[in-house]
Amino acid sequence: MLRSATLAVLALSTSALSTSALSQTVPPAATQAAPAPATGQTTQEGTQQAPATPTPPPLNPAELNAKRTAPLLADQAAMKAHVLFLASDAMKGREAGSPEFDIAAQYVAAQFYAAGLKPGGDNGGYLQRVPLTTYRAAEKGTASWTPRRGTVQPLVFGEDIVTSAVPDRAETNVTAPVVFVGYGIDAPSLGQADYKGVDVRGKIVAVLPGSPARLGGEERAFFGSAGTKAALAAAHGAVGLIQIDMPRASGRRRPFAMLARGFDAPRMTWAGPEGRGSTPTPTTPVLGTLSQSGTAKLFGAAWARVMKASEATTPRYKPIAAAGTLTIASKTSFAPAASSNVIGIIPGSDPALKDQVVVLSAHLDHIGVSPERPGAQPGADRINNGALDNAIGIASLIEEAKRFTGDIAKGSTAPRRTIMFLAVTGEEKGLVGSDYFANHSTVPLANIVADVNLDMPILLYPFEDMIVYGAERSTLGPIVRKAVNSVNVDLSPDPMPEEAIFVRSDHFRFVQKGVPSVFLWPGQKGPGKAAVADFMGNRYHRPGDDLAQPILWDQGVRFVGVNYAIAREIADGDQRPVWNKGDYFGTLYKGPMAK
Ligand SMILES: [Zn+2]
Description:
By secondary structure, this protein is an alpha/beta fold. It is 30% helix and 20% strand.
């Protein structure tokens, strides 16, 4: 599962808004790429998560082994076995681009083979190669402001501005007028039209971070990301985007000084043919972040009025053209890497429907090994095993595949539509492997009728209900409800809308291609609420997400059962899923829509 602070700066590529190849642009405030500076991570977690409660003393080796090797029923043991392997220390956190991730991918390919899946990757194998690049700022960039009347003023790096690495350019040189466009959101149907009445062609747009609270959970998170803003700026003909640091805007953002210290933190995306990173907005790079002092140099007295306006409960901003031109020059360096998605197929049985493909996805990668932290105990565990995030999702995917092929072997009919089991890389880097797949799909994209995504089911309590993100957006909702009810579980509404989970995992890359998608979690009724809060606050994206946790494997088997019922229902339905009439994302990405 992607960190929410990453989401705030992630480029959620937007095919409806940009015609170019899609992936991610990561502006400077991004902190997800490993190895991120330890201080940045600490501060970020400190501001966004509950304070850590004291952890119980670690188990000794004999206690750990007793936990690992305790006998279980066969179906539970089968599921646990995948997690024992994938979340072992030997996998070193399965970071995309690492040799250990490649071993994990071979493991999944072997399991797909054993399950009887047909290969769905490159050249008749299970693997789809995903070329990656790690990119970073090669040096501190330079910037200056030339007022219409007056002399050139340098903008001081770290005081006025922090320039960004640009994923697809070794050198960036932009000189252009600057227009402030508020949040930089163009969504008239949601009542936010920041570009109305302003011509930004050939100009740099300067935007505030985030988005207005009234937009609501998922749309708010989507429009708050710098990637969406860059795509909108590109659609309006801007030649660059610069972010404005607003210290009061959100407790989650890194302070400007920390942004400056981490200016050359590496980030990862998939690579184009020339080895540079892909970006959905090649014409409109994210150039950097202006501090309040830097912004005031550009906009003069007008900026004080904007800051005054920002104090309102629901601030409204008017576009402001700065009187002069901004020049920014920066260099980006690249280091190639490679990884793989793993793909297995069950061919459909209905001649009329077998070309249609239902994708079941889960990410195989995790965040690797944390850097050593100053003051940490010598020998402290730094391996992020990712047992729940997302070894257990992959284990569910494999066991679900075995349930399908096992049932077929016992004489039941194969599903009417084709089912694709997709284990992706680079989710933690910004949904990179799923974005690569969505742009290099191994079956025609138009044939993909749905994605059901498994990411980080927190199987630490007997779940009494389920949450299906995206259920209210498409006809997958009723299908999912029927399947869930068939195994005596109820659907509950999203208990944490402010987390915007719907835009934080791999299914969103399918949404961006118009494909109705859902993402399932065990619900939070009864013991769920406390267990989820404890996990998110204390072990999420930390070394403690390992096999010492009290994972309930019987709940894992139940979870597989629900997912199986859902996949079967979608694969066998008479109608392919469509978006509900007028759904925001369905409309934006031109997906099939209910009449
Ligand atoms: Zn994660």
